[in-house]
Amino acid sequence: MTRSYVVTAILGAALTLSATVSARAAIGLGTQFATVTLEKLTPGGMYNLTQLRGLPLKVINTGDAPVEAAVDIEPPAPEELKEGYEAIPDPAWVRIIPARFTLQPGETARCDVIISLPDNQSLVGRHFQMKIWSHTAGEGAFGAGVVNRMFFSVGVPGPESLQRAKRVAAVYVTDVNVEPDTLYLTVPRGGSVSLKRLRKQPTIVNKGSSDITLRITEDSGGSRLPVPEGYVPADGYVRVAVQPKNIRVKRRSLRDVDVTVAVDDDERLCGARLAHTLLLTP
């Protein structure tokens, strides 16, 4: 299965929370970590972000006193969930190594973030969100810390990728059409007609801002689109020759399609009203 890894946001962005605990010392932690989105992960797979993408979690002591720090994985609250995602069911799926350490003022710790998914096919198609909570630890420590978010999808693209695909498909629906989209012909039994000779060629109109290439295929069984009222699917009795079958239409232009329709020489077809559908796909 092909895996893809998508990293969003900007590396090196640091968020610091600090609080003064005395006149002489300040405690603060910052992190350097991208908002990471992983797609098409495999059930049972293990993913180390440092090895895969060179993305360790960096925890920085931004204060002027030594601190003991810890990193925990937590599920987000319902109001924190991004649309299309659910909270990670078990924080144990993700390990931070090291998860606890001491930092001197200005010192940075590099932590590996490792995802280990259960070998469970029911996870396929689901999208998960989690929080990486880097914070001070130890008795009497002031609760300074930073939250980073992480997202991953199992076996499928993430919701954002799916939405982008839908938007691309919508562009085709909106910007490309066939005129006319329905033709009514009288064809002799055992004969054929050329739409070009009848001057009834369908025209593909590309109103978009980009060139497109479309493939023309047949759907003689009417399985994808309904047939007009009073007609029945051709069921193989009609043969359609299309030239070209792969057609390129430049942006903001149109192109005719040469179509020839032939009907079988079968007595049962006398007076029959048959429907034959051509499909255009990117």
Question: What report would you give on this structure?
Answer:
This protein folds into two domains: 4-157, Immunoglobulins (Immunoglobulin-like), CATH 2.60.40.10; 174-281, Sandwich (Immunoglobulin-like). Helices cover 8% and strands 46% of the residues. The chain is elongated, with a radius of gyration of 31 Å. It contains two helices and 24 strands. The chain has helices spanning 49-53, 159-175, and strands at residues 4-8, 14-20, 26-32, 35-41, 46-48, 57-61, 67-74, 86-87, 94-97, 100-103, 108-116, 127-136, 145-154, 176-179, 192-194, 203-206, 212-219, 232-233, 238-243, 246-249, 253-256, 258-263, 274-275, 277-281. Strands 1, 4, 7, 8, 10, 12 and 13 form a seven-stranded mixed beta sheet that branches. Strands 2, 3, 5, 6, 9 and 11 form a six-stranded antiparallel beta sheet that branches.
